[in-house]
# Entry
Amino acid sequence: MVLDTFLISGLFHVVMLIGLALLLHLQLGLSRIANFGVVGFWGVGLYAFGVLYVRVDWPFGDPIQFVVCAALATVAAGLCGLLVGWLIADLDVDGVMVGTLGFATAVALLATTEQDLTGGALGMGGLRFPYDTGDVAVNELIWLLVLVALVAGILAYVWLVHRNPYGRLLIAIGSNEPLAKSLGKPATRTKLGLFTVTSALMGLLGAMYGVMVRFLEVSSLGIELTLAAVVGLVVGGSVRVLGAVVGVLLTVGVFDIVIQSYIPLPADWYTQTIPLLREVMFGLALILVLVFRPLGLLGHMRRDRLMKRIHGA
Amino acid sequence: MVPESTTTVRPELAARTAPRPRLTLANVVKSFAGRTVVDVEDLSLGNHPIEGLIGPNGAGKTTLMRLIMGSLKADSGQIRLERAGHRDVVLSRLHAHKIAQCGVVKTNQVITDFDGLTILDSLLLSVTPERREFPLHLMGERATYEEHRAEIERQLDHFGLENTRRLALSAGEKKLVDIIRCLLLKPAVLLLDEPTAGLPGEVTQKVMDAVDDLAGNGTTVVIIEHDLDVIWNLCTQVTFMAEGRVMLRGEPSEIREHSTVVESYLGQGHV
# Structure
């Protein structure tokens, strides 16, 4: 079996971003919580997992060690979500954007400065898969499939949310919070709960990424990850279930896999030119979509069709 | 305290003597940028089935309703809900959603809606219990609809609203949906802020019928309306406000002929 580890790594990145964009869809697309600190919650999961896995002397080995560390990392990201969510609860959109962006910056700074724990700018190794087939490529493929299963679960959950009262509540709160409150809906508590759980899941995706790369670098905590998730979601359609999937495939998928893997580019481009070109293309895609199709490629939510499907014409 | 009349214009409403939910406001003050917009010393709403709140623009009527609903917080004073068989609740200490959960709801003066939600969505949102809106409760949509289908269809039939699997389009439709949402909540106290503004005559009558019906079932209704025919025909008690204060309270015939009301609000043509 011939496996292209570059392709597996690229696919892992795309699937992970689909997961992040789906979670962002619940936050931003439905509830209008403008979380621009996605990488912060993801990074808390990544580094909490790494530190717990590498620095703590556990009395048991894998796979229990992985499960315990990933669970604790998820909880840590969720607690950060709870704290940040509480702080931004009464802020307007601008305040939420700045607050979450500030949180992500703080996480990156902490990961850089707390060298004893995180390895700082030197990075941190010592991570490994919770299983070993004896072939790194096979290990990576299995891990990719585990991630696909997790993201498929998130997608199924989002699909169900749209078809049930919880989804309607999120849309109502995002659309007109004072009106939702006047109908007895606990808007603040609902948003806080959503933000906590989705932040926790972003942390879990971070922990899974840590296993895949097996070496943590603070450079991964830059804003690029947040931008990729936001651009993917907005390009696809932030209010549609499949908007995150379509958008990330058309942006990150096309650029990171199709262009980088299959278009012959000069070797020296990979270090400096491609990362810059990537950001330029993402920015261009965002501008074009916002100008010509502000609701994204998939457009409106189409609750009319959904209601007919569920309750009949 | 403003003297209160005990007589009524509509005997059939007065006959509904069952104790009904009552809102009492004591020393409620609200100012914006140093200007006092509401200063209500003592006001009790709910001694009559349907009470009207009238006054010129800027009298503080809508602000008073917003203070009751908790969407604005008073600078001082207390707003209390009294219901037979229930413990008294100090509404002015509660969050807006808790006030609505206590059964105090309000329609909106300014047309307001949920972007992206269909008319049916909007109505189902009203009737869905909190337990079905839990993030892990992912099978409750059809059950919620079936449980409340008869009541929703009854209201839709009454108001002649069809094809609810679409977005509300016109301002009038949005206004009606706003009213039906509140009616579906089966409120203890219903505050109506210019409910018939922008509605055609026949729909206005339907709104009045629905309000009358609700009051007959024990709900306390308080209505702000600039169409004074609605006030005179529907209400059994009217409060006249000006400059944030309660100036007069009494039965409609007293209020409409009172010199203060005529001079500062109605004009001589109304006498």
